[in-house]
Amino acid sequence: MDRMLRFSSVAAVVILGVPPWIEVDAIAHPTQRAFASLILLVAAAAGVWAAVRLQPLGARITTLAYGASTLGLGLFATNRPIEHLLAYVVALIGINVLLYHSRAFGPALASASRDDATARRTRAVILRSLMISGGALVLTYGGSLLLLPAFSLEFGVRDPITALLLAAALILSLLFLALQPGGLPTRRLGVR
Amino acid sequence: MKTSMVAALLTAAAALVTVAFLARSWRALALVVPILLYLGIGAMLAPQPLRIEATRTISRDRAAVGQPVDVRLRLTNRGPRVASLEVLDDLPEPLEVTKGASHGFLTLAPRASVDLAYTVVPRIKGEYAIGPVVLRAADPLGLRYEESRLEVEDRLVAVPRMEDLRRVRIVPRRVRSPMGSVRSRQVGPGLEFFSIRDYVPGDETRHVNWKASARLDRLFTNEYEAERSGDAVIILDARSESEVGPLPRSTVELGVTAAVSMAAKILDARNRCGLIVQRALLDWVYPGYGRRQLYRIVDALLRVRPGGEWSLEHVAWVFARFFPPDAQLIIVSPLLDRKAVDVIAGLRSHGLDVLVVSPSPIEVERAMYGDDPLAALAYRVLLMERDALIQSLRGYADVVDWNPERPLAVALQGVRPYPRRR
C-alpha cells in the first residue's frame, strides 16, 4: 500500500503535467516556448523527486509552475472554460493532499507489512482517510461549479490603484488567518 | 495546529485574488472558490484536543542481547472520538521490532481502550528507555492536527550476550588462602587426592587410608590437594582504534561478550574477578566474589562505547597501583596497537601471568567484504602480519586468537590451566 501511494503520487505529478504542456505549446514565440518548457520540465522533475522522497514541500514548486502555466495562460491567453480551470485547481490541491498522505502514512505502512491487528487497523484508518480526502475534493469541485453563476456578473472596481489596495487588504487578512493559531509541523512521526 | 498546506493554500488564494483585481477578471476570482471550500471542509473535520492516557507493560526489564521482550501499550480515550490517531511508541535504534508494530494508526471511541502489542529484540547491549508515546490526530484533508506527547517511559537493560564456557578451564594461576575451587598443588583441605603420609595423632579418622595401613601394618593418612581461590582481572581494550566492524559484531562488542563470559566463569568457580575498561575514561571494578560482583561487572560493561586514545601503558600503571599484584591478568584486545607487545612484556617482567584473548579484527573485516579477490589477497597479508605479532607475544603470554565466526569456548580450549615455566 505504501508503494501504491508513492506510485499514485508520481503518476499524478506526471499526468498533471500534461495540461500546462498543452498551454505552453500554444506560445507562438519559439524562445519563450522553449524557456517555459524548460521551467515545466524542472518543475515536473522536482515533483517526481518530491513524490519519491516523500517531501510534500518539494511539490510546492511543481504546484506553482503547473498552476501559473495552466491558470495564467488558460485565463488570459487560450481562454479555457472556467470549469476546466476549476477542475485543474482541485487536481492541484489533490496532488498536494496525496503527497501529504504518502508522507504521513508511509512509515506506518512500511512497518505494518505483517498481517496483525495493528497492521489491519492502520490500513483501515488510512483507507478511510484517503476516501474522505477524495470525497472532500469531489465536494469542493461540485460546490465550486454551483457557485460559478455568482462570478459571471461583470461588476466591481475599475480603478487599478483601488483594485491593488483591495487585493492587498484581502491578502493581509488571508495571511493573518494562516498564522492564527499555532505553527507548522516540524517533525514527522515514525522517523527517527 | 495547522499544517503548511493551509499556508500554501491561503497564499495561492491571495495570489489569485491579486491577479483577479489587477486584471479585473472575475473568472480568476472564481478560482479562489475551490480553495476556500476545501479550507472550509477542513475546518469542519478539524480534530479536537487529545485526552488520552497510556500505560505500558513489558515482559521483563532485564534481557540478554537477542532475547525477545514483549511490550503492550494500552491507550484509553478520555475525550471525544478520534477518527484517525497516529501512535508512535518511541524506541531507541538498537531495539528492533520483530513482531507487531510500535507505530500505527487507529480509531478511538470515547472511553474505549486499544492495545498496541509488539515484541522488541535488543541488538546491542545497553540501558534503553522505551517511550515516550507520541500521539497525533490529523484531519483526513491534511490541514490540521493535534499532537500530544505522553511521558510514559520504561527502562530496559540489555545485558551483553554470554558465550557458553562450561567446558573451558579459566583459572587464576596463583591462589590465595580463602577456599575456592582452584587446585593449588599444596596440601590442604580439598577433594582431590594428593599424597599419603604416616598417621599422626589428631588426624581425622575418615582420612586414614585403611588399605595402605592394612598392607604395611601401620597407620597412614591421605593428604588432599588444597582448593583455593585466586584473583583475576580482565582488561578490556575499548579504545577508538580498537573498534573494527559494524555493530553488533564489532571487535569492541565481541570483547565485551568475551569479558562478561570469562568473568561469569571465573566467579562461578569462587574466585575473585575485577575489571578495567580502557575507553575515553578508565572504568574499573575492584575484584570481588559472587553473583553481585558479576552484576557490577555487567553494569560496567553496559556503558562501554569505543572512545579514547590512551596507551595500554596507563592500564598497566592503574593495575600496578590499585589491584592485587598476584592477580591473573586477562587482556581482551584486538591487538591493533603495535605497542601492545612492549606493554605485555613489561607486565610479564613484573611477574604477572597474562592471558590475551584477541577477537580477530581481520575475520570481522573479512565477513564484511565477502568474496573479493583483492580483499582475499589483503586478508592473507594481514593474517601473516597478525600471526607474526601473536608469535612474538607468545614469548610473554598465553594468546588466544579468537575467530568470532566460532564459539569462544573453542578458542579457549588451548589455554593451559597451570602457570608458565619461568
Structural class of chain B: alpha/beta
Kindly name the structural category of chain A.
mainly alpha
Count of discrete domains of chain B: 3
Tally of DSSP β-strands of chain B: 19
Q: β content of chain A, as a range? A: under 5%
Give the overall average pLDDT of chain A. Answer: 80
Largest sheet of chain B: 8 strands, mixed
Number of domains of chain A: 1
The CATH architecture assignment of the largest domain in chain B turns out to be 3-Layer(aba) Sandwich
Order of helices and strands of chain B: HHHEEEEEEEEEEEEEHEHEEHHEHEHHEH
Coarse shape of chain A: globular
Kindly report the CATH topology of the largest domain in chain B.
Answer: Rossmann fold
Which shape of chain B, going by the Cα principal axes? Answer: elongated
Number of helices of chain B: 11
Tag the structure with descriptive keywords.
heterodimer, A: 192 residues, mainly alpha, 7 helices, B: 422 residues, alpha/beta, Immunoglobulin-like, Rossmann fold, 3 domains, 8-stranded mixed sheet, 4-stranded antiparallel sheet, 11 helices, 19 strands, 33% strand
In words, what does this structure look like?
- The complex is a heterodimer of chains A (192) and B (422).
- By secondary structure, chain A is mostly helical.
- Chain A has one domain (2-147).
- Chain A has 7 helices and no strands.
- The longest helix of chain A is centred in the last third of the chain and has 31 residues, at 117-147.
- Chain A starts with a helix and ends in a 13-residue tail after the last helix.
- Chain B has 422 residues and is an alpha/beta fold.
- Chain B has 3 domains: 52-159, Sandwich (Immunoglobulin-like); 177-227, no CATH class; 230-412, Rossmann fold (3-Layer(aba) Sandwich), CATH 3.40.50.
- Chain B has helices at 4-23, 26-30, 32-44, 210-216, 251-268, 290-302, 312-322, 340-349, 361-369, 373-393, 408-412; strands at 52-58, 62-64, 69-77, 82-89, 95-100, 103-108, 113-122, 126-130, 133-138, 145-150, 154-159, 175-187, 193-198, 220-237, 272-278, 282-288, 328-332, 354-359, 398-402.
- The longest helix of chain B has 21 residues, at 373-393.
- Chain B is elongated.
- The mean pLDDT of chain B is 86.
- Chains A and B meet through helix 4, helix 5, helix 6 and helix 7 of A and helix 1, helix 2, helix 3, strand 4 and strand 5 of B.
